[in-house]
Amino acid sequence: MWSVNSTSWHENVPKAYELFRPLWKGVLVTAGGFDGASAEEAVASGNVDVIAFGRPFIANPDLPERIRLKIPFTPYNRATFYGGEEKGYTDYPIHTVA
Ligand SMILES: Cc1cc2nc3c(=O)[nH]c(=O)nc-3n(C[C@H](O)[C@H](O)[C@H](O)COP(=O)(O)O)c2cc1C
Q1: Residues of the chain with pLDDT > 90: what percent?
Q2: Whose CA is nearest to atom 28 of ligand 1?
Q3: I want to staple 52 with a disulfide (CB 3.0 to 4.6 A). Which of 25, 31, 42, 77 is the partner?
Q4: pTM to 2 decimals?
């Protein structure tokens, strides 16, 4: 699974939520390239309170269960984003238990 936190262009660059944490003491929400493991790691760091998911939710209608059960995410198809029809929005599968 692609993750902002694991791409080389993002290495040694402060995470946005680490920059905002000293400036905002309220509930801090962030998003962008997280998977279940990196989301849990970010919250556990104490620098962010909530991780939101955008693109993975489009491709994984059962995203909360996948995170809970540590099931890999179905990759999203960028080509179907911002389209005017249901393709790429209502036809991704839920996971099947073997
Ligand atoms: C199809 C699509 C529509 C989006 N629409 C909005 C929007 O209306 N407002 C907004 O703040 N972010 C919007 N986003 C950005 C997401 O909220 C999120 O910040 C971004 O996808 C990064 O998180 P992710 O890596 O979990 O996808 C959109 C993203 C996608 C792919």
Answers
A1: 74
A2: 54
A3: 31
A4: 0.82
